[in-house]
Amino acid sequence: MKKLITLTLLLFSSYYCFSQQTLLRYYNGKQRKHFYTTDFNEYGNGKNGWVLEGPACTVYTAEDRGRSIVPLFRYFNKQTGDHYYTLRYEEYGRGGNGYYLEGPACYINMYQAPGSVPLLKYFNPYTGDHFYTIDRHELGRGGFDGYQFKGVEGFVYPANPQR
Question: What are phi and psi of 160, to 5 degrees?
């Protein structure tokens, strides 16, 4: 029985020890666009009109298909200035509909895992901006400032300010 409990605790703790990092959220008021990255050096505290809004959530640093941790692909549309994030590579592949693949932004859970929360996806057709949040009260079911709720993109963890 002791071995079973030890093994269970070991497996459970390894689930949480997988390398994680903070996904940062930026906003550019002039462009009316949002941008998400795990690399603080991309925009730092803000440059070229981008302002750091803070941590969006906590994500993984690598893929682990055995635990359904998969890439969240980042696409960019030069014409509209929009960044689009999706688990579904087949949506645009290497590029399509004006978007080109920049690569994985990070790695997230495909399915709900202990302690994880939904990553909610919104789109504003007036500004062409995709917006992602874990706070369902931030935009609700959509309608706020023109944003429309598009569904759950995957599952992440609440941001930890100490990360």
Answer: -110, 110
Residue 128 lies in a domain: yes
Which residue range is the domain that position 130 belongs to?
16-156
CA distance 33 to 106: 19
Tell me the whole-structure pTM to 2 decimals. 0.84
21-43 residue pLDDT tens: 999 999 999 999 999 999 999 99
Q: Is residue 8 part of a domain?
A: no
Cα–Cα–Cα angle for 153, 159, 161, nearest 5°? 160
| Structure tokens belonging to residue 127 | 């500004």
Quick one: which of 126, 120, 116 has its CA closest to 147? 126
In a domain, 27, yes or no: yes
pLDDT in tens, 88-131: 999 888 888 899 999 999 999 999 999 999 999 999 999 999 99
In this structure, are residues 50 and 35 in contact, taking their beta carbons and an 8 Å threshold? Answer: yes
Number of domains comprising the chain: 1
